[in-house]
């Protein structure tokens, strides 16, 4: 594998990538289910965008979790479970929706991190 690809796309652990990828599959499944119920066929551009966002979602989530870890530190907040699940679902949806824009930041960081090691 080319070193740049190994340092970026191979930068996350397989366990982390697989876990986030499985969570990321929730959104395309829901999205394609809704779109498939319409009278029009699903445009190819939409399918391509859904596939790209799904594959990049783990890197997008990596960026989000890194930013939250930096802001929050090791603090723990006690909140209502329903509220927390709602917030978690919304952040997951945002990370998936904007994965094509957020993930390059994570890929650049992974390249930098694995280059200096």
Description of the molecule:
The chain is mainly α and 117 residues long. Helix content is 79%, strand content 0%. The chain has helices spanning 3-8, 14-24, 26-36, 44-72, 81-97, 99-116. Helix 2 (14-24) crosses helix 4 (44-72), helix 4 (44-72) packs across helix 5 and helix 4 crosses helix 6. It is flat and about 50 Å long. The two termini are 18 Å apart.
Topology:
Elements lengths: L2 H6 L5 H11 L1 H11 L7 H29 L8 H17 L1 H18 L1
Helix pairs in contact: 2-4, 4-5, 4-6
Task: Please provide a brief summary of the model.
The protein is 79% helix and 0% strand.
Q: In oligomeric terms, what are we looking at?
A: single chain
Globular, elongated, flat, extended or rod-shaped: what is the shape? flat
Extended strand count: 0
Strand content: under 5%
Distance between the termini: 18 Å
Secondary structural class: mainly alpha
Integer average pLDDT:
87
Radius of gyration: 16 Å
Structure annotation, total helices: 6
- pLDDT under 50 segments (min length 5)? none
The major beta sheet can be summarized as:
none
Q: Summarize the helix and strand pattern as letters.
A: HHHHHH
Helix fraction? over 70%
